[in-house]
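Pasting as-is:
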Amino acid sequence: MKILITGGAGFIGSNLTLALLKKGHSIVVLDNLSTQIHGINAEETSPLYTSIKNSVTFIKGDVTNREHWQKALIGVDVIVHYAAETGTGQSMYEIERYTTVNVGGTGILLDLLANDKKLQVKKVIVASSRSIYGEGKYFSQELGIVYPNHRNDDAMQNGDFDVHYPNEKTALQLMPTDEESKIHPSSVYGITKQNQEQMVLCVCKAIGIKAIAFRYQNVYGPGQSLTNPYTGILSIFSSLILNGKPINIFEDGKESRDFVFIDDVVAATILGIENDTIHNDVFNVGAGVATDVIAVAKTLLAKYNKDVPLTITGNYRLGDIRHNFADLTKIKKALGFTPTVSFEEGITKFAQWVTAQPIAESKFDDSVEEMKKKGLFK
């Protein structure tokens, strides 16, 4: 098949590109080589871009540009739409940029698919996100399954970071979040991902194109950006550790995420691309395991054999969730996907790769200061 991957020079996109090339597919990549992700002079220095540039039809362009889409879509059978602004924190003050790229760019794509009869696209895969679930799914002894609202700023200022449900007397029990769970994102990024997903599924169904939305959890692995301070605590913590800087952990350090290794994400996505029977559906992609932030920091310190101060600060960012991990029952049954890389194995591979890279300057403190100025970091 001829497959267009938007954002195909990024972390997930480039790994997917290389895997699809090995399977004999022809790949077109549309990517703007964002400085925040690839650094300056990306066409010469970005390892992600250089890993694919001689093997694909590469179009340096922007998903907010209709002409760039028209050029990229010629002869394409399948679209994998990754190009997006990412990161919950930054989305809370770069609102116009996030909505223009994530929602507007997807709108241009769908407008072309609906109106340009020369196009032969048969399937669209869109990258959604676990962020659309907000605080996720919990069990209440009194009420059964509940979906708590976003956490209260006043409570967090007083050191209470747990999620609560109105009039609930006992602590809520965290549950894996399935695809039928309530969608109520707590960040602009999450809202744009919800919008992307629903637009793609709605329009593609109406015009007879198969579509799948993959709700990715926290994807990590060799190759991810070590300089972008807005996504990926594994990269953020690694840069701080290797620069000899202290790690200041937000909240109480017990907040958790589902960390899924890049190879598993690629495998799940390829199952969706090549499956001819599943369409107009959504699937979680994760490891199905919750790992807390303190465990992440301590594991990385051990992997790098470094000792830097580790402080639980009680600070927090508005828009962050407390916990979320994926229920994988649906994707296992429908697509036959089961993650194969444990967190211990994945973090070992990641740390080995990081130690072979030049030590990147950590820009995390700058991002925190920016959020403070906006009143979004407390």
